[in-house]
Amino acid sequence: MYEAVHAHPDGDATVARHAATAARYGYDGVVVRTRDALTPAGDDGEPSQEAAALREEYGVDVVDAVEVDADDATGASGAVGNYRTERTVVCLVGGDDGLNRFAVEEPRVDVLARPMDGPGDFNHVLAKAARDNGVHVEFDLGPLLRASGGKRVRALADLRKLREIVTYYDAPHVVSANARSHLGLRAPRELVAAAEAVGFDPEWVEEGLRAWGAIAARNRERRSEAFIEPGVRRGRYEEER
Questions:
Q1: CB-based burial of residue 185 (10 Å sphere; 0-12 exposed, 13-18 middle, 19+ buried)?
Q2: Which pTM was predicted?
């Protein structure tokens, strides 16, 4: 299972601190959403020397990512185009109707982050588009863990509504605590237990945590020199032609 984190300078902890904490909690990897926190992978999809060194030291996969936070779909389109060839995982922050729609209709986006975190909504049309384009919808459990009072109640209602739509239309999803510090990380079993306490299926939560690693593996393969198209890889015959 993987967790997707914000690291310094966007967050309050370094990538190394996140990696060390994630390893201690039993994660297989961390996806670093902060663009400037981690050197990107090479053109062949192989992790950078920095990411490889962190994996060697802490025993967890460290994935370079970017979280695009744009004002509108036009700005989002340009940013996604720029980062798609540079980063292993591309997330787009939603929260309004225009950005949510753009994200789920854009196959270059891996994850629609925090779609309910704002005035926007998420409906069956968007769920079907996310399913058809392979865009994962994020379930941010951060408010469930860190908020209180009315804010927590509203966040929980949004998560339940989002889950109902996403599961009904079989759209892909990811789960995260959206930690900005290593202190905000929670072990997988803690996230599962917290979500289960408010009505979420444990296996569904675990699937969402594993999905981050599956996205990274898929995109690394696509960037490798051996990749031609899904299901087709370059072999000795193609190399010798």
A1: buried
A2: 0.91
